[in-house]
Write a structure and sequence with these properties.
Layout lengths: L1 H30 L1 H24 L3 H60 L4 H38 L1 H20 L1 H11 L2 H43 L4 H13 L5 H14 L3 H30 L3 H15 L1 H19 L7 H18 L1
Helix pairs in contact: 1-13, 2-3, 2-5, 3-4, 3-5, 7-8, 7-10, 7-12, 8-9, 9-10, 10-11, 11-12
Length: 372
């Protein structure tokens, strides 16, 4: 009885700790994001700076040089990617209405005329219903195209209008990263001294577990992205798409972005091909999309589970529950959190399941005694 009571207390304790940690994380990300980014940059660059200081001595100019070069590379990459993205979205928004009026609308009209021809000789009520449906579909497609075009232009306007606020946050993140990088050891030591001494090792273990689990997660999704890229490259090559490797790479990148997936590109693509009368290509693209989706959904729990040390079924449950409870963040956050707790338990750092395990062993021993 005492063991079960102790187990319940442990469960309540960890739920409270996780709740407080979740609330703290929410407010930290809401109000301290630039400083969090600055610290993460300093943390990522720390191994490089450490290796250089071993050869040239512990001098501040090394830290400043490393972070300066880092921002030069990041700045060039962000600049060119932003220019390419804005230019591409602008061209898409400008050309989309013309594509609809000159290509998509005539193809839809021919397709719906074919339906009218099939049903015109049948019951007049059926023919009238078909005409109403085709009219509604045509209007909906037109509204979607107009919405996409307007939405793309509004997105560009919104991005441009948010530049001042983004620049301020970016500037604060950059400045804070310089302070974190040049005085990393003292800052970390001061933070560490605030933690009660008996909890310090546990905090270090959680940090190591978090870093290790995130690294394993990145490896798992890099494998999934590579698999998607290979499948797409082969499928698009067989279909006869121009530049299949480049197209597959772009779709694979979209696949790993939040909320988006291969369907963001593939579904509109094969629908448009079918509307334009390219039935063979449209069906082939649909088959490629279905195969990739099935393979991804089957292998994702297995690959991720093997990397982080969880059973595929448990991984699948955690991914689904995390997504339902916390959205995209929960998709990764819940499996990572459970993995860290499991790792700490397996290493004996926490005894979350000790009491229930003891109860099971005690029940097993009692059962053996009864059988004897």
């Amino acid at each position: 009885m005492e063991k079960r009571k102790s187990f319940i207390i442990n469960v309540i304790y960890f739920i409270l700790v996780l709740g407080i940690a979740g609330i703290g994380t929410y407010f930290a990300f809401s109000y301290l994001m630039p400083f969090i980014i600055g610290f993460l940059i300093a943390f990522i660059l720390r191994p490089v700076i450490y290796k250089l200081t071993r050869h040239f001595g512990n001098k501040k100019w090394i830290s400043l040089l490393v972070i300066f070069l880092f921002y030069i590379l990041i700045g060039f990459a962000v600049f060119w990617i932003s220019i390419a993205a804005i230019s591409g979205i602008e061209k898409f928004a400008v050309k989309l209405p013309g594509f609809y009026n000159n290509t998509l609308a005539p193809s839809l009209a021919n397709l719906f005329d074919g339906f009218d021809g099939v049903f015109s000789s049948s019951d007049p009520n059926i023919a009238s219903t078909v005409q109403e449906i085709t009219a509604v579909l045509t209007a909906n497609v037109k509204n979607i195209v107009q919405g996409l075009s307007t939405g793309a232009l509004n997105f560009i306007t919104k991005v441009i209008s948010s530049v001042p606020s983004l620049l301020i946050s970016t500037l604060i993140a950059i400045i804070s990263s310089f302070f974190f990088t040049t005085d990393y050891r003292n800052i970390v030591n001061n933070i560490f001294n605030v933690i009660p001494e008996k909890r310090r090792q546990l905090v270090l273990d959680i940090k190591d577990g978090l870093v290790g689990t995130i690294g394993k997660y990145l490896q798992a999704y890099a494998k999934l992205m590579s698999l998607t890229f290979v499948e797409l490259s082969l499928g698009l090559w067989l279909v006869g798409i121009t530049n299949p490797i480049g197209t597959a790479f772009i779709i694979a990148i979209v696949d790993i972005l939040p909320v988006l997936g291969t369907g963001t590109v593939m579904i509109p693509w094969f629908i448009i091909e079918l509307i334009l009368g390219n039935f063979t290509r449209g069906i082939a693209l649909a088959v490629i999309y279905v195969l990739i989706t099935v393979v991804r959904n089957v292998l994702e729990p297995k690959i991720v589970g093997e990397q982080i040390g969880l059973h595929p079924l448990a991984t699948l449950i955690l991914i689904y529950v995390g997504m339902k409870l916390f959205g995209f963040a929960g998709l990764f956050g819940l499996p990572i959190g459970v993995t860290i707790v499991k790792t700490l338990h397996d290493e004996g750092k926490i005894q979350f399941f000790r009491n229930i395990s003891d109860s099971r062993n005690e029940s097993k021993n009692q059962l053996e005694e009864i059988q004897d």
